[in-house]
Design brief:
Length: 248
């Protein structure tokens, strides 16, 4: 399997996460100290401003840290998770296309929406909930959000990208999959969701089920997709990493 990832972006946004987190902490501490070093009648307003700015910096830093600093990163977990189904002809693109993680197979394209959250994850239709965190929900957490809407938005971006850059393959199959990459997750219960969601350990099985009865794309369509997906990674092609998972 060929894996292409924007390492420079990962490094840059990882550093940004560190800077924003430290800046947020500094602003919060500074706001706390204002009451001891200032006798201005407006000190409360300055403290409130410091709280808002510091919290904002910290949250943005946390957002980037979860994606670009935590080990193993989500993209690294996906490398392992796609498994033998992509071993021969898969091409996995990280942070190079309008969707963060895209898997190109001879039979079509998968948009992998990676989520790091753990606990008890439930979905009924398009309503998602994360419970079972206890006090952990107050420390260094990021809300689950709505993975279904996130997946739909990424698919729409990929469709637009393909239509503009590989019009010959505009009708190629495009499937979204929500993938939870946390090492341990208490439970994942999905009911009547339009978009499949699995733990990373079961991704390979799902991909196999989705593609086992599909015919390969016409060669012209596949080549058009590959050329369009490779274009943003032209600077990486000569340094391509061939990741070949062990047979299951």
């Amino acid at each position: 399997m060929i894996v292409l990832r924007d390492e420079k972006r990962i490094y840059r946004l990882g550093r940004l996460a560190q800077v924003l987190s430290m800046a947020g902490l500094a602003v919060l501490v500074g706001g706390l100290l204002l009451i001891f070093i200032s006798d201005s009648p407006s000190v409360f307003l300055f403290q409130l401003l410091a709280l808002v700015v510091g919290y904002g910096f910290s949250q943005v830093g946390l957002h980037y840290a979860h994606r670009y600093l935590r080990r193993p990163r989500m993209d690294q977990k996906l490398d392992e998770a796609v498994g033998a189904v992509a071993r021969r002809d898969g091409r996995l693109y990280h942070y190079l296309l309008p969707a963060s993680h895209v898997l190109l197979l001879p039979s079509g394209v998968f948009v992998l929406v990676a989520k790091f959250q753990n606990g008890r994850i439930t979905a009924e239709g398009d309503t998602w909930r994360q419970t079972g965190l206890g006090m952990r929900r107050f420390f260094g957490r990021e809300n689950l959000g709505n993975p279904s809407r996130e997946a739909e938005a990424q698919v729409a971006k990929m469709k637009a990208y393909i239509a503009a850059n590989a019009p010959a393959a505009a009708e190629a199959p495009l499937w979204p999959v929500i993938v939870f990459t946390a090492e341990k997750i208490d439970s994942l219960e999905i009911k009547e969701s339009r978009i499949p969601a699995v733990h990373a350990s079961k991704l390979s099985k799902l991909l196999r089920q989705q593609t086992i009865n599909l015919k390969p794309l016409p060669r012209a369509e596949y080549d058009a997709l590959r050329a369009a997906f490779d274009a943003p990674a032209a600077h990486l092609i000569e340094e391509t990493i061939d990741v070949t998972p062990a047979a299951e």
